[in-house]
Amino acid sequence: MLIYGTRATTIGEFTVPQAECASCHQRGTQRMAVFGRYAHLFWIPLFPVGKVAVAECTHCLRTLRKKEFSPELRRKYEEKQGEASRPVWHWAGLAVILLFFTSTAITEAFREVDPREALLDADLEQLTAQPALATDSVAYYTKAYFDEYIVPEMEPEDFKYYTREEGDKILLLLQIPTLKDLDQDARPEVVTMVNEIADDFPHLDGKQRYIGVKGQSSLMLVSSPGGEENSSYADEEGLYGFYGPKEGEQ
Fold it and tell me: How far apart are CA 234 and CA 212, in angstroms?
């Protein structure tokens, strides 16, 4: 549940000498308080959103809002409000957010970009719901298998496929938009199914298999000769080996 809104804290208090209370007509009993309002998210201050002033008679305890101030009280407020400065912590949440985005931008700017990342992104762009038998037979038969055995609730008609072979390696990519709806313990069965389908192709026998299964927007399953990963955001670097060693490595 998202908790947000505004709150206020006292940022200044002062008396108004000789001011007369409109209720009990006592003089010198007016006390004024200024409250600083701030927006918050989960009760963490984000930024200031204004000030609120009230005046109270210490004799009869009548309280007046700013719009009810007498000309004398209003003059005193205009004179003293500058002394009611906001505490730095009213900006704490905004400062943290700015610091986070700044540090993220700096980290990204100095991040060493692996050229294999762009190659994988390009292959992921080739995912299609209608692979052709003539150009991608492995993807074509993988689709036929999934269409036959995947339950309708998983919406197999929206699945996408793509495979690519390079020497003794093969890259098998799928996109299953509803994968997040599948129990996490059952998700690795998708990789098992892909391997079983690949076993039916004699020319793939002995080839290193790199399997990536994308959910709605990110890779959720990665299987490579070096191991497997099953998480909400699988590490795509497990598929980089398909494109060869990292630049500068043998």
Answer: 9
Quick: pLDDT tens for 201-239.
999 999 999 999 999 999 999 999 877 666 556 889 999
* Domain annotation for the chain: domains and CATH numbers: 4-104 (no CATH), 115-243 (3.30.300)
pLDDT tens sequence across 117-129: 999 999 999 999 9
DSSP states of 71-120 as a string?
Answer: HHHHHHHHHHGGG-PPPGGGGHHHHHHHHHHHHHHHHHHHPPPPHHHHHH
Return the structure tokens found at 94: 């905004």
3-class DSSP assignment, residue 137: helix
> What distance in Å separates the CA atoms of residue 40 and residue 232, rounded to the nearest whole number?
30
23 neighbors 62 (Cβ within 8 angstroms): yes
